[in-house]
Amino acid sequence: MRLDMGIDASHVVKPPALDATALEQLAQAHGIDSLMLGVLYALWLAPEQAWVSLPRLVKHLRSSASALLRTLAPLSVARVHGQPGMGWLEVRNEGLRWQTRLTAEGRMQCAGLFDMR
Questions:
Q1: pLDDT of 21
Q2: How far apart are CA 94 and CA 92, in angstroms?
Q3: What residues contact residue 52 under an 8 Å CB cut-off, 6+ apart?
């Protein structure tokens, strides 16, 4: 599989689900907020281009909706307070359904974080 950025990610092997302790250790090792890392990991495990509902993420991550939205903002393609986001994920609202998914850039970044070879 080739990502849009021209990086070959065919060697990346998605690991079995990491437990909370392993995710916390990975977050500390990379200096990343543990909720942010949990969001990225959950989206990375989802099928490529699949939209994931925010209520499902809230339940899965045992977080609040407001904390999740604050975590998604800097990772998204949206501008927050005039500053561009990192572009790692997209967020959409279809009627009353809030959903998110990784962009090609987000998948590339997650491959670097979660490649467990």
A1: 82
A2: 6
A3: 42, 43, 46, 99, 100, 101
Residue 32: Cβ-neighbour burial (10 angstroms; 0-12, 13-18, 19+) = middle
Alpha carbons 105 and 103: distance in angstroms, whole number: 5
Fold of the CATH domain 20-114: Arc Repressor Mutant, subunit A (1.10.10)
Mean pLDDT of the chain: 81
The domain segmentation of the chain, as residue ranges, is: 20-114
Residue 88 in this model has a pLDDT that exceeds 90: yes
**Global confidence as pTM:** 0.77
CA angle 83, 89, 95 (to 5 degrees): 100
